[in-house]
Amino acid sequence: MVVNLSPAVADELSLEGAWAGVAIIAVNPGCVADRIGFAPGDIILSVDGHKIATVADLKAALGHGAAPWTISFRREGQVDTVRIR
Description:
The chain is of the alpha+beta class.
């Protein structure tokens, strides 16, 4: 489950700083996101090099075709990238 990041969401997830973008707030056990290693509090930054600022951006990026996708995300101040096939 993802939401547009707001000050209230950042506070709820204990994220510090001025955040914008899309936050993961829940991951169902056993789902694809769980198997990849996504966790609540991760911030989706980009998909295939396209900046993700809203949930609508994320849906559009993932909805334009099947994987593979390259997703960059921030967790605890560190940026990481995963490739999903």
